[in-house]
Amino acid sequence: MSTSIPAQSAPSEPQTKVALDAKVIAITGANRGIGLGIAECCLVNGAAKIYSIDIGEVGDDFESLSKRFPGQLFAIQADVTQEASISGAVDKIVEEAGALHGIVVNAGRTNHKAALDFTTEEIQALFSVNLFGAFYTARCAARAFIKLGINGSIVFTASMASYRPNKVCSFYPPHLTSYYDGACHLPPYGASKAGIRNMTHTLAMEWAPHGIRVNSVSPGLVNTAMTYWVPQQPDWEQQLKYYGGFPRLAEVQELGGAYVYLLSDAASYTTSIDIPVNGVIGIC
């Protein structure tokens, strides 16, 4: 460790309120799905501005949330698989908002098929977004935090698929591929998310001297446009009996509390952890 890095002192007044008052937060893949749910929770809990960094266009749900919080929700188009693209997005946020206090590394994709059926191109595309893109995003944010002198927070979206193997669902629409998280995932998705959890611990240790906290959240099954079909499976009730836990999928807003806590100053001594939010079910 470089001796030029100043030692971090404790906050003069540790915060006990879990809130994001006046904070500027960026969220990758937040034009819809889990990312947009996180954005809503951040805004409800006092965030000054939320920026979605996404490769796609915004939809009706994003526009609706923007109307609820006028002048606080913005979208920037960027490709997480290209570090220069993410760096440009972060620079634009800092230029417009004057700061960046936290980033949620949420953009991801999955492909619903058996491991033996994946092509080389499909595996590379999945890892390019889920793992390499996550690393690029975190590194761009860390550089911005250091330059601004801000003790920033990085929160990765991992997955319960990083903890244990998946059960192949009895059926699924073959066209389902996402650029955001939340579905019944198959390998190599779980491997990419296990890499996220390991990267969380490694980066937390490396960047702690800069006052940067790095954590992750592992969602289980979440109700998004990608998972409408999950409760329609013929054996869904049997699956619930087998796995136990809450007999339903989570709503995207139900994940937000974990992210809000990790982004807030109340978590000023919390780093290198993963918070599972899975209702016990975790994997279908």
From TrEMBL:
Pfam families: adh_short, adh_short_C2. InterPro entries: NAD(P)-bd_dom_sf, Sc_DH/Rdtase_CS, SDR_fam. The keyword Cytoplasm does not apply. Transmembrane segments: none annotated. Gene3D superfamilies: NAD(P)-binding Rossmann-like Domain. It comes from the Eukaryota. GO terms for molecular function: oxidoreductase activity, acting on NAD(P)H, oxygen as acceptor; oxidoreductase activity, acting on the CH-OH group of donors, NAD or NADP as acceptor. Keywords: NADP, Oxidoreductase. SUPFAM superfamilies: NAD(P)-binding Rossmann-fold domains. The keyword NADP applies. Belongs to the short-chain dehydrogenases/reductases (SDR) family. PANTHER family: BENZIL REDUCTASE (PTHR43008), CHAIN DEHYDROGENASE, PUTATIVE (AFU_ORTHOLOGUE AFUA_4G08710)-RELATED (PTHR43008:SF4). This is Uncharacterized protein. It comes from Penicillium daleae.
